[in-house]
Design goal:
The complex is a heterodimer. Chain A has five helices and five strands, in the order E-E-H-E-E-E-H-H-H-H. Chain A is an alpha+beta fold. Chain A has a five-stranded mixed β-sheet with strand order 2-1-5-3-4, with helices on both faces. In chain A, a hairpin with a 2-residue loop joins strand 1 and strand 2. Chain B is α+β, with helices and mostly antiparallel strands. Chain B folds into three domains: 46 residues, Uridine Diphospho-n-acetylenolpyruvylglucosamine Reductase, domain 2; 111 residues, Uridine Diphospho-n-acetylenolpyruvylglucosamine Reductase, domain 3 (2-Layer Sandwich), CATH 3.30.465.10; 112 residues, Enolase-like, domain 1 (2-Layer Sandwich). In chain B, 33% of the residues lie in helices and 25% in strands. Chain B is globular. The chains are: A alpha+beta, B alpha+beta. At the A-B interface, strand 4 and helix 3 of A face helix 2 and helix 5 of B.
């Protein structure tokens, strides 16, 4: 008999109820139960940062959190960033600065920077590098991502 | 899904937690999950029972007293970081926390989880040693208080029984004005330290009156560097004093592993010791000027 629990949570603003096996981590729940495959899974042991999502306003690695622990919480994934006016400033900055090539790390990078910029309005180059130090990218060489982070910060401050 | 099947428990009070711990065999405690979840995903850990501490009320308080700062074991590293700034009495904890993982892991990772996992390279056990922290452990047999020096029992083995749980930790303030510093070297920011060193230094009229130096990453357990501390106290707060203390640290045995060999760790231990002592002394001089 699998050990299951009923959970209710908010995913990208939408309420959701589900029965989950307690050993399922949040990333698998988002991908397989919520059918939101924008959250990527790279290493599944907390190193690569691909699965980063925002839970109650804070960036977390969704492979290191059980779905059952998201009960009652509000989760934002990459699918929840854009609104009717278009892409989120962080997403647009990635496009403008060639911050992605294959795109595998991108959702984790974007969610990481979105959460980071929410708390740190005036980062410099070094701050951005530290913020994304927990996210691995094998294509870009990071320069475009850092540039995207700086542009998004400026835009979110109202500078652009 | 990655973890092997387990039965999940979500107690809501410390007493419920303690009675649960007394009744379960082969249980693991889930704090922030930044190490245990990875071990579960890799099936390096396959416990019969998983007890979630995140649902237990009252384990995430922070309380300052005249003698120290008591921190619940479930306080997130990100929260502790906000409470360990320059004027909190434990700024070295804040300086060390910047090296702990990444900001996305500090949002979940806890002080108690780090102390109980007791990775030899972890920063928080080292700064807990610097502040002579006192740990409160609860279990079916009652409450125990363990001085941080007696906490590490061996490689990744804390002084906590199978049916016990670390509930809080109290960092002891230093009465003397002092300088502090924490430095480490890792291949990539946020990786485990190859070696990390922290220091607290009280200086009066140019003479070192009290010193605490702790190291992580070099040996299977974090340690206070008593010999180096003895070589510092009573001496002038000068570069040559720091160099002799660093030489003592460099002589200590260090471990070799897949990342690097013992000789390099010893060299790092010496370099980092000298560096933190210089920085701590210059900060101590600033606090002296302020008075």
């Amino acid at each position: 008999m699998p050990d299951t629990r009923n959970i209710t949570l908010t995913v990208n603003g939408e309420p959701m109820a589900a029965q989950v096996e307690t050993r399922v981590h949040l990333a698998d729940f988002l991908r397989q139960d919520a059918r939101l495959t924008g959250t990527h899974l790279g290493c599944e042991h907390g190193v690569c940062g691909s699965c980063t999502v925002i839970v109650d306003g804070e960036a977390v690695r969704s492979c290191l959190m059980l779905a059952v622990q998201a009960d009652g919480k509000s989760v934002t994934t990459i699918e929840g960033l854009a609104d009717e006016d278009g892409m989120h400033p962080v997403q647009r900055a990635f496009q403008d600065n060639h911050g992605l090539q294959c795109g595998f790390c991108t959702p984790g990078m974007v969610m990481t920077l979105t959460a980071y910029l929410g708390e740190n309005g005036e980062p410099d180059d070094r701050d951005i590098r530290e913020a994304i130090s927990g996210n691995m990218c094998r294509c870009t060489g990071y320069q475009g991502i850092v540039a995207a982070g700086l542009q998004a910060a400026e835009e979110l401050r109202g500078g652009i | 899904m990655k973890p092997a099947p387990f039965t999940y428990h979500d107690p809501t009070t410390v007493s419920e937690l303690v009675s649960l711990l007394g009744s379960l065999e082969d249980a693991r405690l889930l704090a922030g999950g930044q190490s245990l979840m990875a071990m579960l995903n890799l099936r390096l850990a396959q416990p019969e029972h998983l007890v979630d501490l995140n649902t237990v009320a009252g384990m995430d308080g922070i309380e300052a007293s005249a003698t120290g700062l008591r921190v619940g074991s479930m306080v997130r590293q990100a929260t502790l970081l906000k409470n360990a700034g320059p004027n909190t009495g434990i700024p070295v904890v804040g300086e060390a926390l910047r090296w702990v993982g990444h900001f996305q892991t500090r949002t979940r990772g806890t002080i108690g989880g780090s102390l109980s996992h007791l990775d030899p390279a972890a920063e928080l056990p080292a700064v807990s040693l610097l502040h002579d922290a006192e740990l409160t452990v609860e279990g079916p047999q009652g409450v125990r208080r363990v001085p941080m020096r007696e906490w590490p029992r061996g490689y990744m083995t804390p002084n906590v029984g199978e049916h016990e749980v670390l509930t809080s930790i109290e960092f002891r303030y230093w009465d003397e004005p002092h300088g502090y510093a924490f430095e480490e070297f890792a291949r990539r920011h946020g990786d485990f330290a190859l070696v990390a060193v922290g220091a607290l230094l009280a200086v009066s009229d140019g003479v070192i009156t009290r010193a605490a130096v702790a190291i992580a990453g070099a040996t299977p357990t974090p340690a206070r560097l008593d010999e180096a501390e003895k070589a510092l106290v009573g001496q002038a707060a000068r570069p040559d004093t720091f160099r002799s203390a660093a030489n003592i640290v460099r002589q200590r045995e260090a471990m070799s592993d897949a990342y690097t060999d013992a000789r390099y760790r010893q060299r790092l231990a010496g370099v980092l010791t000298e560096r933190v002592l210089m920085k701590a002394a210059s900060r101590a001089a600033e606090t002296e000027e302020d008075r």
